[in-house]
TrEMBL record:
Residue ranges constituting the STAS domain according to the UniProt record: 485-753
GO CC annotations, alphabetized: membrane
Keywords: Membrane, Transmembrane, Transmembrane helix
Bilayer topology: Multi-pass membrane protein
NCBIfam families found in the cross-reference section: sulP
Name of the molecule in the record: Solute carrier family 26 member 6, like 1
Listed transmembrane segments: 31-48, 60-83, 138-160, 303-323, 335-358, 370-388, 432-461
A GO MF term: secondary active sulfate transmembrane transporter activity
Pfam families cross-referenced by the UniProt entry: STAS (PF01740), Sulfate_transp (PF00916)
C-alpha cells in the first residue's frame, strides 16, 4: 500500500518534472531559434554592406566571371583601409566603372575571336573559358594602368582634376552609361545570343542586333527575369514605404539571390530548361600575376577615363559625408589611396573600383563611422570566396541581370534633370544634353572626352561674354553697384566706374576694351585719330606762318625804301607786286597803261598785290598799304579761319606771327567742336580678376596711354595681390603709370578722383566762342618820319 503510494507520488513528480523539462526545452529551442534568427539578420546586414550580390552582378557588366567581382570587393578594400582619408565611403564595384571595363574587355576580346568548330558538326561555338581568361587579363591591365594614373596625379598634387567634371556632366554621363548597361544586359534578360559591338555607334548596332533576334528569345530565361524584376521592384517599394519603421532595410537582393539559387538547384533549370547559370566558382584565392604590359598601349585612353571618373565619384561622395559629419578629406591623398587600391587589385585579377554609392549609404545609415565597417565587409567577402562560393554556382545569370537593371532605376530618374535645368540654367542644360548624346553615340571613353572638352569650351565662352556694367554709388554708403539693375545707385559726376564680371585675359581683352568704349561713351580710337589729324594741320600752319614771317620781313625792307623815295618825289604811285616766290617788283603806273597793268597783275591767282596810295600820308602821319586781291591759298585749310574775300582790306603789322601761334595753340580736341564729354576719370574695377596675362597687360597700358591723350585719368581698383604681382612682372608700371593709380577699393579711387579733379564736370566747348582773332590780321608797321 505504502509502496503504491510512493510509486504514485513518484509518478506525479516525474510527470511534473517532465513537463518542466519540456517547457525548459521549448524555451531553450525558442531562444536558440531567436539567436539563429539574429545571427541571420546580422549576417544579412553584413552581406548587404559587403555587397556580395551587387559585386557578382556587376561582374557581368564587366564581362568577366562573377567570382572576379568578389575579388574586386576584397583586395582594394583592404588597401583603402590603410591609405584612405574618408571614414564613411565603401570601396568596391560600381555600375559605371563596370560598364566602362566591360566596353574595353568586349572590344579587345570579342566572341568572334574565340570561336571553335565542333568536331562532328559544322557549327561554331565560343570557347568561353579561353575568352573569359583573356578578358580578365584585359580588365586587370586596364585597372593597373588606371591606378598608376591616379597614383601619379595624386603625387603631383592634381587632386583638383575631378573638379572639371561638373554635376550636370556627371549626371548625364551616368544616365547614358545606364542605358549602355541596359542594352548590355538584354542578352542575359532575354537569353538571345546577340553580338556586342564596340566603338562609336556601338550602342545602336547592339540594340539593332538584339531587336532583330527577338524572335529567338529564350522564354524560360525571360520568365525568370520578369518574375525577379517584379519581386525586386515590389520589395524595394515596400522597403521605402516602411523605411522609417524598420531598423535596417530588408535584404531584398540577398533573399532574391538565395531564392533564385534554391529554385534553380532543385528545379534543375540549367539541365531541364537550358537557363544560363553562373557556373563554377572556385574556392580559394587567386595567386597574384603581373598584368600584360603589352596591353597598356591599347587601353591607355580607357584607363585614363576610368581613373578620372572613379576619382570624381569617390571624392564627391567622400566630401559629402565629410561635410555632414564634420571632418576633412584630402583630395590628393584620396587619389593616392584609390590608385594604390586599383594597382594592388589589378595584380589579383580585379577590375576597376571606386566608392560604391549604395554600399556607402547603407554603411552610413546602419551606424558605420570608420573604415572598420569596410574591413568587416572584406572579411565576409573572404569567407564567401573560401567557403560559400560553391553555393551560388546554380544562380541564374538572369537573376543577376535583373538585380542590375532594378538598381539602375535611380539613374533613370535623372532624366528629370532636363526639366529642372531648363528652368534654372540653359547652359548647364546644353552640357547635359551634349554629354548624354556624345556618350550614347561615341561610347563611354570618347563620350567622356567629348563631354569634358565641350564643358571647358562653355567656360571659355562664358568668360568671353561676361557682363559689363557701369557702377554707381548707393547714397550714404560706400557701396557701388550696377546702375542698370539698381535704380537707387547714382553716378559720381565726372567719374565712370567700369567692371567686368569675368577675369581679363587674352580671350576677352579686345572685348573688354570695346565694352569700355561703349559704356563710357568715348570712341577713343576715332577721337585720337581726329586729334592727330588736327595736330598735323597745326604743324602745317606753323610752317606757313614761318614763311609769312619771312615774306613780311622782306616787305618791311621794301616799304622803307619806297617810303624814302616818296618823300623825294610827288609822282603817281608805283605798283609793287609780290609773286609766289616772295619777290617784289616795282612797276611804274602812268594813266591807262598803269591801270591795265594793275588789272593784269591783280588777276594772278597766287599773288598778293599791294599799292602805295596816291596820298602816301594819312592824318596820323602813317603810310598804309592797301590790299587789293589774292592771299595764301592754304589759308582756308584750317576750319576755324575766316575765308578772305575779294575786296577785303586788312592791316599789316609786326605781331602776326605771335597771333598765329597763339591761335594754333588753341586747336585741341575739345575746341574743335567735334566731341564734348563730361568724364575726367575712369575707374576700372578689377575685383573679379584672379589672374591676368601679357595680352591683358598690354591692353591696360594702351588704355592708360590713349585716354591720357584726351585728358582722362585711369585708375585700377580692387586688384588682388596675385594680379598686382603679375602686373609688376609684365613691366606694367613706369614713370607715367605708377602704383599711385592702384587703389584697394573703388571708394578710395573715387575719393582720389574727386580730390584731384573735383566733383563737377569740365565745361563743355561752345563752338560760337571761337575768337575771330584767329583770322590772319596784317597791321601797319610803317610811320612817316
Amino acid at each position: 500500500m505504502d509502496s503504491r503510494r510512493r510509486f504514485g507520488k513518484y509518478k506525479v513528480e516525474r510527470e511534473v518534472l517532465d513537463e518542466e523539462r519540456l517547457e525548459e526545452a521549448v524555451s531553450e529551442n525558442n531562444a536558440l531559434s531567436f539567436f539563429y534568427f539574429l545571427i541571420f539578420l546580422v549576417f544579412a546586414d553584413v552581406l548587404i554592406r559587403s555587397g556580395i550580390t551587387a559585386c557578382m552582378a556587376y561582374a557581368l557588366l564587366a564581362s568577366v566571371p562573377p567570382v572576379f567581382g568578389l575579388y574586386s570587393s576584397l583586395y582594394p578594400t583592404l588597401i583603402y583601409f590603410i591609405f584612405g582619408t574618408s571614414r564613411h565611403i565603401s570601396i568596391g564595384t560600381f555600375t559605371i566603372l563596370s560598364i566602362m571595363v566591360g566596353s574595353v574587355t568586349e572590344r579587345l576580346a570579342p566572341d568572334v575571336n574565340f570561336t571553335i568548330r565542333n568536331g562532328t558538326n559544322v557549327t561554331e561555338e565560343v570557347d568561353i573559358a579561353t575568352r573569359d581568361l583573356y578578358r580578365v587579363q584585359v580588365a586587370a591591365a586596364t585597372t593597373v594602368l588606371g591606378g598608376l594614373i591616379q597614383l601619379f596625379l595624386g603625387v603631383v598634387k592634381f587632386g583638383f582634376v575631378g573638379t572639371y567634371l561638373s554635376e550636370p556632366l556627371v549626371r548625364a554621363y551616368t544616365t547614358a552609361a545606364a542605358a549602355h548597361a541596359v542594352v548590355g544586359q538584354l542578352r542575359n534578360i532575354s537569353g538571345v545570343s546577340a553580338k556586342r559591338f564596340s566603338g562609336p555607334l556601338s550602342l545602336i548596332y547592339t540594340l539593332v542586333d538584339v531587336c532583330s533576334k527577338l524572335p529567338q528569345t529564350h522564354l524560360p530565361t525571360l520568365a525568370v527575369s520578369a518574375v525577379t524584376m517584379t519581386l525586386l521592384i515590389a520589395a524595394k517599394e515596400l522597403n521605402g514605404f516602411f523605411s522609417s519603421k524598420l531598423p535596417v532595410p530588408v535584404p531584398v537582393e540577398l533573399i532574391t539571390i538565395i531564392a533564385g539559387t534554391l529554385i534553380s538547384s532543385y528545379a534543375h533549370l540549367r539541365s531541364n530548361y537550358s537557363v544560363s547559370v553562373v557556373g563554377e566558382i572556385p574556392n580559394g584565392l587567386q595567386t597574384p600575376n603581373v598584368p600584360s604590359v603589352s596591353l597598356f598601349r591599347e587601353v591607355i585612353g580607357d584607363a585614363f577615363a576610368l581613373a578620372v571618373v572613379g576619382y570624381a565619384i569617390s571624392i564627391s561622395l567622400g566630401k559629402t559625408f565629410a561635410l555632414k559629419h564634420g571632418y576633412k578629406v584630402d583630395s590628393n591623398q584620396e587619389l593616392v589611396a584609390l590608385g594604390l587600391s586599383n594597382v594592388a587589385g589589378g595584380f589579383f585579377q580585379c577590375f576597376s573600383v571606386c566608392a560604391s554609392m549604395s554600399r556607402s549609404l547603407i554603411q552610413v545609415t546602419t551606424g558605420g563611422k570608420t573604415q572598420m565597417a569596410g574591413l568587416a565587409s572584406a572579411l565576409i567577402v573572404l569567407v564567401t570566396i573560401l567557403k560559400l562560393g560553391a553555393l551560388f554556382q546554380e544562380l541564374p545569370k538572369a537573376v543577376l541581370a535583373s538585380v542590375v537593371l532594378v538598381n539602375l532605376k535611380g539613374m533613370f530618374k535623372q532624366y528629370s534633370d532636363i526639366v529642372t535645368l531648363w528652368r534654372t540654367n540653359k547652359t548647364d542644360l546644353v552640357v547635359w544634353l551634349v554629354t548624354w548624346v556624345s556618350t550614347m553615340l561615341l561610347n563611354l571613353d570618347l563620350g567622356l572626352a567629348a563631354s569634358i572638352t565641350f564643358a571647358l569650351f562653355t567656360v571659355i565662352f562664358r568668360t568671353q561674354l561676361p557682363t559689363y556694367s557701369v557702377l554707381g554709388n548707393v547714397p550714404s554708403t560706400e557701396l557701388y553697384v550696377d546702375m542698370e539693375t539698381h535704380r537707387e545707385a547714382r553716378q559720381i559726376p565726372g567719374v565712370t566706374i567700369f567692371r567686368s564680371s569675368a577675369t581679363v585675359y587674352f580671350a576677352n581683352a579686345e572685348l573688354y576694351l570695346e565694352a569700355l568704349k561703349e559704356k563710357s561713351g568715348l570712341d577713343i580710337t576715332k577721337m585720337i585719330l581726329y586729334k592727330r589729324q588736327q595736330e598735323a594741320k597745326q604743324k602745317r600752319g606753323e610752317k606757313r606762318a614761318e614763311r609769312r614771317a619771312k615774306r613780311q620781313a622782306k616787305r618791311e625792307v621794301l616799304f622803307r625804301r619806297t617810303q624814302t623815295a616818296a618823300r623825294n618825289a610827288s609822282v603817281l604811285p608805283d605798283l609793287f607786286v609780290e609773286d609766289e616766290a616772295g619777290c617784289c617788283t616795282e612797276m611804274p603806273m602812268d594813266g591807262v597803261i598803269a591801270e591795265k597793268e594793275q588789272q593784269r597783275w591783280s588777276e594772278k591767282e597766287n599773288g598778293t598785290v599791294f599799292v602805295i596810295p596816291p596820298s602816301p600820308r594819312t592824318l596820323d602821319g602813317q603810310c598804309r598799304w592797301e590790299y587789293l586781291k589774292g592771299g595764301d591759298p592754304d589759308c582756308s585749310s584750317l576750319g576755324w579761319l575766316s575765308e578772305l574775300q575779294d575786296g577785303d582790306t586788312t592791316t599789316l603789322g609786326s605781331s602776326s606771327e605771335d597771333t598765329l601761334s597763339r591761335d594754333l595753340e588753341r586747336v585741341s580736341l575739345g575746341s574743335l567742336g567735334k566731341w564734348t564729354w563730361d568724364i575726367h576719370s575712369i575707374i576700372l574695377d578689377l575685383s573679379t580678376a584672379n589672374f591676368t596675362d601679357t595680352v591683358a597687360i598690354k591692353m591696360f597700358k594702351n588704355i592708360f596711354q590713349d585716354f591720357s591723350e584726351i585728358d582722362v585719368d585711369i585708375y585700377l581698383a580692387g586688384c588682388q595681390e596675385s594680379v598686382v604681382e603679375q602686373l609688376e612682372r609684365g613691366n606694367f608700371f613706369s614713370e607715367t603709370i605708377t602704383k599711385g593709380n592702384l587703389f584697394a577699393s573703388v571708394h578710395d579711387a573715387v575719393l582720389n578722383c574727386l580730390n584731384n579733379r573735383g566733383a563737377t564736370s569740365p565745361p563743355r566747348f561752345d563752338p560760337s566762342a571761337v575768337s575771330c582773332s584767329a583770322t590772319l590780321l596784317w597791321k601797319s608797321i610803317g610811320s612817316r618820319k
